Input
Amino acid sequence: MTQQNTTTSRTQWHTIREASLLSGLSESTLRYYEQIGIIPPVARDPSSGHRVYSEHDIDVLQTISCMNAIGMSLDAMRQYLGNATEVMSAEMGDVDPLVVRERAKQQVELLDAQALRLAEQLERIKIQQSYCAIKTMYWNAVAEGRADAECILDENRDLFEQVRRVG
Output
C-alpha cells in the first residue's frame, strides 16, 4: 500500500492481505477479531473503504497471533490487550502509576494462568506419548512372535487408565 504523506511523518499503511501475511492471522480472523472487539475498529482507506493497518496495528496483530498460538482464550486476549493499552497511555502520562502496576500484575496473572494450562496440556501429551510407546512395544512384540507381548499390556494397565482420564 502507498505511504500517506503528512507534514510531520510518513505512515506506512498495509492492506488486510499484507496485515494477514505479517501477523500470521487469516483475513477472516482479522475481520472477526475486529467485529468482536479483540482489536479496535481499523482505519479505512477514504477512497476505497478498505481496511488499512498501521505499523502499530501490525505490532498488535503480531501479539494477538502469539496469544492465539499459545491457546489464550478470546476473553483473556481482550483483557491482555486492554491492560497493554492502559499501560501505553500511562507512558504518555495519562494514567496513574498505581494503575500501571495493577495492570502489570494482571498481565502476569493472565500469562501465569496460560502457562499453567500449557503445563497441564503438556502433561496430558506426555501420558498420551507413553501410551503410544507402550502400544508400539506391544505390537512389535506381537510382530516378533514374542510370548511376553501380553505382559507388556498387563504391566501398564495404570497408564491405560491415565490415558482414559486425560482424554
About this structure: The domain at 1-69 is CATH 1.10.1660.10 (Multidrug-efflux Transporter Regulator; Chain: A; Domain 2). The chain has a mean pLDDT of 91.
